[in-house]
Amino acid sequence: MTLNILFRRAFSDIKHNLGTQTVTTLVVTLSLLIFVFFSFLYYNLERFVEHFSRELGIVIYLKKDISPERIPPLYDTLQKMEGVKSVSYVSPEEAYHRLETYLKDESIALDGVEPNFLPPSFELEIDRALFNLNKIKELSSTLATWPEVEKVQYGEEWLDRLEAFSHLIKMVVAVGGVLLLLSAVFVVASTIKLIVYARQEELEILRLVGATNSFIQGPFLIEAFLQGLIGSSLAVGIVYGMYIYTKPLLANSQLLRGLDYQFLPYTFWLPIIAVTTLACMIGTMFSMQRFLKL
Amino acid sequence: MSTSEMPIIAFQNVSIKYPPDNVVLSNVNLEIEKGELIFLTGPSGSGKTTLLRHLFRAEQPDSGSIIIDGMDVSTLSKSQIPYLRRKIGIIFQDFKLLLNKTVFENVALSLEVLGLRKDQVKKRVCNVLEGVGLGHKLHNYPQQLSGGEQQRVAIARAVVNRPPIILADEPTGNLDKVRTSEVMHLMNELNARGATIIFATHDERLYQNSPGRVLKIEAGTMEVIS
Asked: What class has domain A58-153?
């Protein structure tokens, strides 16, 4: 038996059942589309969290009563720390001046307040290549233990929330992905089952003229292969289209400025296509079992 | 005994029953020689179709062995059944043609399962359809043919792969007198070319003047009546 005959029979079946085949492929596309879209969202959200955590840097508030002689050695120590790109010292006067500028017309509220009422601080710029959110957390905890340090801030509160949200999305994507994939497989297997039901007479005749199980099953497996492959590739393609369309729009966003907005890596979407295609074929094999009894 | 001298079909102590307690055959021994024309007769419900179904291993006997061309059908593995069926052409009363396929495609099915090349399939299908007088209706669909023509397509499908055995289950049951004689003529021609034919019918007129052996099934026994 040649593959040639099986492909010829499969394409003839597709031609005869074009409507059903198209609907099945679209169901695979829609199921996968939701999964790929949320994966894409999660992937960029994670990158956004990562990017922002690096962008924020760390502010080290020193104790108000710190002796001015301690500032240069602390500055040197911070400068030499791994992952610290630059350090700048903000004196209480400088901080006061920044606050005054920030308050603009409302700066009247500062009347009568001593210019040195704010604590001195160090602002650290983090080397993006070396640091991620966990490392920033780690560094901040270490710095907080220094006796001269009053408080360390890196925007942890909202970064933690963002991170928690990102984890939630990850869970939703993972669980939803499995469910959607299963539903796509179920739909493909059921459709094949219905097609097989409708063609029982043909299968019976094929068995009577001496067709082997692989001859009978072959075209259906080829159809499932194509449904899985085309359906999942379309889903990935649509999300890629969305990415291409939204990329210039997001490039102008103030919030996302500097963020390297990217499409899912091929190490993610290629296995998705492969798993969907394989799952569709396995589903079809199972749904045909009872029709192959001789 | 050399293979050429062996009967092409042999029943050895075959018993066939179906629930609850209907006996089709009880301990039957029978030998059918290569090239024989056998008429299988008996009243409706006597088990003619059931017996034919045992020959192409759609069913298995309760006891005994059925030997076809040296193979014990009852002990065949599932994967070997298609190869047994390629030695047997089957013709049904209701033709069993695929209505969404053309005459050519219906007949070609028997050759496609063998893995023949497209050009070989085309040549053999056209030849056999010429032989049954339907060479001009290759691209017609079954609904566009008369009952007799449909049965000739079914015969073409059964013989296109040149099987040594042909099983015909009431093939003239749905045909008028003229079409019946056309089908009988074709069957005699196939038999003359060496095919072993088992022809199940309850129509006595078909075998009255035929040289073939007539076997009658009734109440679990098989009797040779001519």
From this structure: alpha beta
